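lol ok so funny story. i was supposed to be doing the assay writeup but got distracted and ended up predicting the structure for this chain instead. priorities right. anyway since i did it might as well share w the group, maybe its usefull for someone
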Amino acid sequence: MTIAMTLSVVVIALICFIGEWLPVDITAIAVMIGLMLLELVTPEEGISGFSNSATITVMAMFILSAGIARTGAIQMVSNLLIRAGGKHLTRQIIAMGAIVGPISAFINNTAVVAIFIPVVETWCRKQSISTSKLLIPLSFTTILGGMITTIGTSTNVLASGLSEQMGYGAFGLFEFSILGIITFVIGTLYLVLLAPRLLPDRKVPSSDGISGCYELKDYVSEIVITPGSGLIGQTLRSSQLQRKFDVDVLELIRNNIHFPQPLADKRLLAGDILLVRGGREDLLKIKDEREIDILPDVQFGQPLLEESLSSGEESIAEVLILSNSNLTGSTLKELRFRQRYNATVLAIRRGEELVRERLGKVSLRFGDLLLVQGPRESFLGLQTSQDLLVIEQRDVETLRRDKIPIAIAICLGVVIVAALDWFPILVSALTGVLLMILTGCLKPGELYGSVRWDIIFLLAGLIPLGIAMDKSGTTQWLADYLVSLQGNLSGYWLLTFFFIITSLLTEILSNNASVVLLLPIAAKVAENLDLNPFAFILAVTFAASNSFLTPIGYQTNTMVYGPGGYRFLDFVRVGLPLNLLMALITPPLIILLYGLE
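and the output, tada:
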């Protein structure tokens, strides 16, 4: 009876993950609550995911990655990428593999990709090469690099915790580094030799900078309040200017003094200049109804436009809608985006499509890039949101460059202590977090914003599911059933089967969910057949990060989807051969390096 109930929970969880009716972390928490209500786990076991070493270690690694990023250590390396890449696409992919891959072995790959997207765009702009030729290789390189160490991905850390929980022991820091390095090199060679031919030549960055990429010159204008205007004496809110017309007021200029947002309660005077986003048709309507003058084009050419949008305390940046964002399906108007984030959306880029009109009525989708303008402090709020990701190179003055040696020393210390097994990774990572705060590499207020809480809650919610499967005997029952079906299947083909099934499940679920469901079953099957359980654990662990087929299977794929102007099938075209290549080489390498019996 308990096996049937547990399997029912697993099936319902799978349906919810695939259907995506709720964010994956909320689904995981619902699974945890369901297990407790059905008494398949005790309340203590139900909440044990929050205190699990894997969950806490992943949280600590997010914070350490943020400490490195805030000091600008990765940005220093990014300059090396531009120099090393030269002028040739192939050389740039090689340089990216040599630089970005090893960083991803120790730093959260989401942070790495967020920093390197603008670096790649800068290089592509200088060489007049489409960003679609390099951003998928950037994502794939970080995925492959994350498999070099145990702390490279949250999936590796979770697999280590599950292995320890089942009695096979936690992974050492470099437990599977030889395997990871070999698959990384082979995957990088594939990207170097074949990816440039398979990738589309779709989007060349504008030489006019970020506003040029969005063609804002025709949609950002300056209008002057004339002495006879009906707007005089009114506030922007009472004038209904932004509500009645498809325009956004970005800035008010009075006597050469720039007034940034919020402007809703600012009274308008004759001679005021408003910097607005809006189409010519709407501006002409305003001119007729409210008696304003539109300054000639020469007044807001590209240099002045860039200066106006990013002057003083104002800034512009690209913001990405993530695949698990709660904002998807809603419009900017429904979300009250301007009030919520104190920032204005100037344009939306969706693949090759550029949306600049009726922005408030556009339903947001994952992978959408929003060009956002607002006070610089507003971007701090955007950076802490789990629904959005700010893609920008931080200004030099905002980076704590004097802390770079300290941050690097802390991370090296964490790695060395864990590698020498003086303390568990959990202890060394938490110590590193404390040192990041004490030395000023991270401010206390930045601590919580640097954690991907959706990942933490996903892990905490799924770990009890693994406990319930083991406690109820479901794992053993499924393992026995698979053994009975195995027939004359050799150990190699069984290992390959688990690799392939995990890869496929990762594309429709999350990689962490795939590991929780399949790793215990794979280990039990190996035990029942007197095979090496560690080999099967490694197969599931590596396959869970073998996510190259879709833009939604892995977070970094989603991150490059919009900036690269990709279509869904672009990932299939480039990712399917790489998925098959990894499925062909990884099981034999596991057998060669770790043995099957």
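Residues 568-594 form the longest helix (27 residues). Residues 314-398 form a domain with the Alpha-Beta Plaits fold (CATH 3.30.70.1450).
back to the writeup now i swear
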